[in-house]
Amino acid sequence: MISRCLFPAAGYGTRFLPATKAMPKEMLPVLTKPLIQYGVEEAMDAGCDVMGIITGRGKRAITDHFDVSYELEHQIKGSKKEELLDDIRDIIKRCTFTYTRQNEMKGLGDAIYKGRVLVGEQEPFGVILADDLCVNSNGEGVLKQMISLYSKYKCSIVAIMEVDPNDVGKYGIIEGNEIENGVYMVSNMVEKPDVGNAPSNLAVIGRYILTPDIFDVIKETKAGKNGELQITDALCEQAKNGMVIAYKFQGQRFDCGSVDGFVDATNYFYELNKDNK
Ligand code: G1P
Question: Cβ(204) to ligand 1 under 6 A?
């Protein structure tokens, strides 16, 4: 039902300098797998097979990652190392990757708008911010959970989690009524509110299902917080004119845009995988 997923990946990753000086932050590995591959696998697990990546200057390693490397294949052919490429080979075989560039840093709303040529304007689509690494060890991935919910509500959906009230300034924050367990009808959304001015401590994380009318709304949305076009503001407008659902996802999210979150994710996957070695 939802076959396309967008990956905004044009940001500079300044919190990881100097590592991200010449390398996209989306290519930082958690163990041996780059962040963006975790996101692509989550999207595949949710049934998507068209991955639309919004890149920028200095991001060519992402394009190369999702393509065959003939030299490498030739080099390791017949050796035990070949199996290290099994997963990425399977991804390349099963998915189509499309790319466009966001040539100015004008915000997440602008990045998603640039992605309309990749997802079209007819169907709902997913959005994954790869630096939010999500896992749900005993069940369905977060995007898959959201797609199940989409089949019931048929509207845009954001994934949310409760955060420390002192951290609201790092996120889009929602206000809404709980209409079923963990599901909220959104009435208001604020991008990175000041502590004390936030409508709640329910924070949006980097997983969205968007209905294609969002593109018309973004077109009319003015620059907001930090002078950038915020997807939060466009969603707030969509919520006023129709319906937006916020969903408290099952699982765990690591903020791999921060060093602490990145180390936590690394430790988590290390513990998970060390017995399989
Ligand atoms: C973006 C969104 C914000 C959301 C966050 C989730 O912010 O603008 O609403 O809560 O992702 O990670 P960023 O972290 O890119 O500044």
Answer: yes
